[in-house]
Amino acid sequence: MDEGRESEIGRHISRLPTPSALTKAAALRVKADRAVRGQDHRRAVKFYQRSLRMNPRDHIAWNNLGVALALVGETREAIDAYTEALKIRATYVKAWFNKGKAFQQLAMYPAAQICYSNVIRLKPNTKAAWINMGVAYREIGQFERSYECYEKALEIDPSSAVAWNNMGVLLTKTGGHKRALICFNKALEHDPTLKEALVEREHVIASIETKRNAV
User: Taking the model in full, what pTM does it have?
Assistant: First the structure.
């Protein structure tokens, strides 16, 4: 082995966390996870950050830090954390999905679509990714693509109240009120407590009645 190669490996090894640091980092991550479960998200952020200072190669901690940051409203910082997780493990489905949700919260729909596409590429039957992709397409006016996403979600899970509800919302935007009503009824059949479907169904019924009375 040449001298330059030896020194390069030596520098890499020197950057690796020591066993002691890894143990401390893991313990801090456990504390952070507990803080999230206890709804103490600010405290969780601090624990994850301390953990990552000791073991910056922990892709799970980066993802979880992103979740905690999103929960305290620091969405852009959350995206940065998910990006770090994906630098370490590009196939980490949870980080792709969470990054997509964060972009969606910021109304950055094309960026969200890229993230959901990666989720679907890695795990095609991820129902939530298809639903969220449908929402992203709907928000930028690509209604046909949106509908196709909801159809795919319902192929995966025909009892998905959220998918039925979102399909109904889409149909109300395109004027398909009677079909939308069927979708909202389907959503409530599978989840009678889904408030959005209850509200949307009442709006659709009122709209249908208005049109009927106007004739």
Answer: 0.85
